[in-house]
Amino acid sequence: MTIKIANTKSGTTISKYIYGHFAEHLGRCIYEGLYVGEDSPIPNKNGMRIDVVEALRNIQIPVLRWPGGCFADEYHWKDGLGPKEARKTMVNTHWGGVTENNHFGTHEFFELVKQLDCDAYVNGNVGSGTVQEMSEWVEYITMDGISPMADLRRENGHDSSWPMKFFGVGNENWGCGGNMRPEYYADLYRRYQTYVRQYGDQKIYKVAGGANVDDYHWTETLMKNAHWLMDGLSLHYYVHPQGWETKGSSLAFDEAEWFVTCEKAAFMDELITRHSAIMDQYDPEKRVGIIVDEWGTWFSAEPGTNPGFLYQQNTIRDAMVAAITLNIFHKHADRVHMANIAQTVNVLQAMILTDGEQMVKTPSYHVFDLYKVHQDAETIDSYGEQSEHITYTISKKEDTVHLSICNFDVTATESLSFSLESAIKEVKEARYIVGDVMNAHNDFDHPDTVTIQTFEDFQVAEEQLSVTVPPMSVLTISLSV
Ligand code: AHR
């Protein structure tokens, strides 16, 4: 397969926010995964796990979405303030029916975001919350001067406001967020977002609750009735190889199911193309972003775990899904302004799994590590032959061209030849991950079964780069040009 690479940038920047993450009050994502509390024997800083924070900083997490998901539309933020022992409890009806003690609230979230050195994406409650409640939350977080909510924040020990870049007005309001029709939600969106006021200098990027998968009517209705009042419109899509009811196992699957999984991941391309085409009619300049704030694999919960906790293992197949999907987001970088894989720790397609004080990085984590070079880089145009099981991205930042390739074939090695417009001065770095079996994965006894290694199977001759890509692999080569 031969591909020509244009040396000029396309003019489209891959927003770093495409590499965003999502953390919900669900199973062991927040509690145990990110937050263990100040008194835990697990090493922590102000309650946040030091090992997990360090791992997430390494992949340059740009933004974290919180508190849900479905949880967001039954979360009442004032319950998560003040002395922890005195905080009101609630039942987490969506996720296992467990009692939520509200020990992780607004102050803890912004402490986490500070430690991660990333931006905050807070998701408000439309389904069971009032306009006043949402409006006051924004005031509590972002108001610096004298006001009832800013004063309340000070009483709770935080003097200055926090930077909040993104705010979501409800979640899945077609389902767990209120079972609404798009016409009704569009009106509610118009009303609720009015009171998401800007108190400081920072403009809040407002995200309207968008479609479930291919519900194009939802997108049409929201754009028609409210596009000028939103900055982003969300889209949720999960990959269930056996469909929503049975989903499929994260570890036990055959070759046919491997390819179904990869094909379902590739469906993201059609989804973005079609939703974007509708948005183009109302917003041809692409001012309103598609915010894919939930995506990833969703398998059956790991046997022996609480099914409501959505804990699943993560294999080299998940790494293929991550690479295929990120390559699609790059292709649509003019419309996709942010994406948040679900979910950061211990839930669905997690970056990290924990068990007590142990922590393991998943194959998906390593894809985010290999791909972080594309954050805020410009895409590079290329053309040439295509191969059925190859997907790739080429981007450029300053004088470095970054090439990432995913070969999701199970047995076939692919020989690829890339032809640049000028001579390659130097190969700065070449790294990859590879699976030896379809369900290769890391666990607490074998944390490095799938890990990043140096990649050596390439040749450079003048402007020509030849790469031999093994099956079930993801690689990134950085070239100085
Ligand atoms: O990520 C798990 C759940 O999936 C979220 O809470 C919800 O928004 C979606 O249905």
Concise account of the structure shown:
The chain is of the alpha/beta class and 481 residues long.
Label this structure with key terms.
Immunoglobulin-like, 8-stranded parallel β-barrel, 481 residues, 24 strands, alpha/beta, globular, binds alpha-L-arabinofuranose
Give an overview of the whole structure.
- It is globular and about 65 Å long.
- Strand 14 (352-355) and strand 15 form a beta hairpin.
- It is built from ten helices and 24 strands.
- The protein has helices at 50-58, 106-116, 131-142, 148-155, 182-194, 216-226, 243-246, 255-282, 316-331, 363-371, and strands at 2-13, 20-22, 44-45, 48-49, 63-66, 90-92, 98-100, 119-124, 166-169, 205-212, 232-239, 289-297, 336-342, 352-355, 358-361, 378-384, 390-397, 400-407, 414-419, 426-434, 453-454, 458-461, 464-469, 473-480.
- The strands form five sheets. A ten-stranded mixed beta sheet has the order 21-20-24-18-17-16-1-19-23-22, with helices on one face.
- Helix 3 crosses helix 4 (148-155), helix 5 packs across helix 6 and helix 6 packs parallel to helix 8 (255-282).
- The model has no long low-confidence stretch (mean pLDDT 96).
- It has two domains: 14-377, Alpha-Beta Barrel (TIM Barrel); 382-480, Immunoglobulin-like.
- Bound molecules: alpha-L-arabinofuranose (AHR).
- Residues 24, 68-70, 171-172, 294, 342-343, 348 line the site of alpha-L-arabinofuranose (AHR).
- Alpha-L-arabinofuranose is lined by residues 24, 68-70, 171-172, 294, 342-343, 348.
